[in-house]
Amino acid sequence: QAYHKKAKAQVVNGEQLSSMSDDDIDAVLVHDQIVFARTSPQQKLQIVKGCQRNGKIVAVTGDGVNDSPALKAANIGVAMGIAGSDVSKEAADMILLNDDFASIVVGVKEGRIVFDNLKKSIAYTLTSNIPEISPFLLFIILSVPLPLSTIMILAIDLGTDMYPAISMALWYWQTADSSHRVLWGCVLIGTKKTSFL
């Protein structure tokens, strides 16, 4: 059988997959190396749901209309920008503008950089604004005179706090060979789709 437990790798074609139950598919998905060949759109969807059932985060790449159900059901659907059909682009979460799979890796790295930079900027803004708010709270609660006026706080925010926060947002990730720098501004984020060059 194609899902023999002792084998290190599995090759399953569409005919075998159509006769498998969910338990059989789960037994195949336990293996590290799996190839599904000649599958129909329904079977692609079945594979995605099987991986998700086993607690995996699933990314599906596709360019045709037949890939649309699997692209929609996956955690991350990746459509091809040049060769992809309009239906697959609508079903996908991310569109590769240059149809290069290496862009996915670069996009994930840049997305993580954006997320880390946002966390740094928010943490810096919160830690710098809490000491500025506390005199006003003491003034309201204990009637302590204000050491800082509103204009002074505004001057502190605009003169000193803004530039470090912006520098943290523009922080780049540097590779081990120090020759490639990835800026957060390279990522094009739209309202519905995220595209990577």
Characterization of the model:
- With 197 residues, the chain is an alpha/beta fold.
- 50% of the residues lie in helices and 16% in strands.
- The chain is built from seven helices and nine strands; from the N terminus they run βααβαβαβαβααββββ.
- The strands form three sheets. It has a five-stranded mixed beta sheet with strand order 3-4-5-9-8.
- Helix 5 links the parallel strand 4 and strand 5.
- The chain starts with 8 loop residues before the first strand and ends with a strand.
Termini separation = 43 Å
Mean pLDDT: 81
What string, H for helix and E for strand, traces the elements in order? Answer: EHHEHEHEHEHHEEEE
Query: Order of strands side by side in the largest beta sheet?
Result: 3-4-5-9-8
Question: What is the radius of gyration?
Answer: 25 Å
Largest sheet: 5 strands, mixed
Uncertain spans: 174-197
Shape: elongated
Strand content: 15-25%
Topology:
Elements: E1 9-13, H1 14-18, H2 22-29, E2 33-37, H3 41-53, E3 59-62, H4 68-73, E4 76-80, H5 86-91, E5 94-96, H6 102-142, H7 150-169, E6 173-174, E7 181-182, E8 188-189, E9 194-196
Parallel strand pairs: 1-2, 3-4, 4-5, 5-9
Antiparallel strand pairs: 6-7, 8-9
Helix pairs in contact: 2-3, 6-7
In short:
The strands form three sheets. The protein has a five-stranded mixed sheet with strand order 3-4-5-9-8.
Structure characteristics:
16% strand; 9 strands; 197 residues; alpha/beta; two-stranded parallel ribbon; five-stranded mixed sheet
